[in-house]
Amino acid sequence: MDRSDVTLERMRTFVRVAERGSLSAVARELGVGQSTVTRHLRELEDAVGVPLLSRTTRRVTMTDEGSRYYADSVQILRLVEQAGDEARGTRGASAGTIRISCTAALGVLHISRLIFAFQDRYPDIGVDLSLTDERIDLVREGVDIALRLGPLTDSSMKLRALGQSRRLLVAAPAYLAARGRPAVPQDLPGHEGIRMSNITGSDTLALQGPGGDRHAVPFGGRLRVDQGLAAREALVAGRGIAPAHHWLVDDLLAAGRLEVILPDYAPPPIPLSMLIVPERTAIARVRLLVDFLAERIGGIPGIEKPR
Known about the structure:
Elements: H1 8-20, H2 23-30, H3 34-48, E1 53-55, E2 60-62, H4 64-88, E3 96-102, H5 104-121, E4 125-131, H6 138-141, E5 145-149, E6 158-165, E7 167-171, H7 173-179, E8 194-196, E9 204-208, E10 214-218, E11 223-225, H8 228-236, E12 242-245, H9 246-254, E13 259-260, E14 270-276, H10 284-296, E15 303-304
Parallel strand pairs: 3-4, 3-5, 8-11
Antiparallel strand pairs: 1-2, 5-14, 6-14, 6-15, 7-12, 7-13, 9-10
């Protein structure tokens, strides 16, 4: 076998195995048998002439030669895709698939609709939308773009600030009728709080008053959830009070199923950001979706775009 056997298909298989560390995971991702993945890797290593991967019973890792080959392969594959876009001209932007990851509740209630509108405009672009509240490794999972709420620490990704997500304190009318309406922040410790178990410090509620004064009040309750849609259901069911993103409850507020309490005291807003894998920023269809979402995201209730 010679260097002419270094095909793009084999190179792509190697890159994804290097990123995911699992032959079976890549086989599922590509829709092929694991034997096909193994064959691609063996044929590529034969063509290159050095071992690129080290296999154990639990994980696949790159050799030193594999690490160097991976970095070059990523650049080659990016250039091949970019060249195809440029060769096809304007049509190059409107073909292929984009993988996007998004916080679950925001994705279900709002981002999915934006994706529908994007695909109406670009009908030949496929979108693979993954909804999770976990901070996944974008490269490992093969994701191009991720929308995330909260502070971010991954400096290896290109970050685009989309705005601030405004929050409110809300409860159901039935809960307020049964337990009374808090008049000041100091009344909150006597109420049932619906807390997020995946947020550190949720047993203390930070509020900012009308004069800029800050309050930190104990916030307890018998129910904790790890997903925004579950908190939404708990609020409607009258299980307690919760700080909620405006976009999470805007329709329930309009229908009178929830009410704002302590309107002069608001939890601090949460930053909303877009993370983009740097190697994907030059791909035309990825740029289209990035710009589309950045333009439309301000239409989501409670999202204040950066000035």
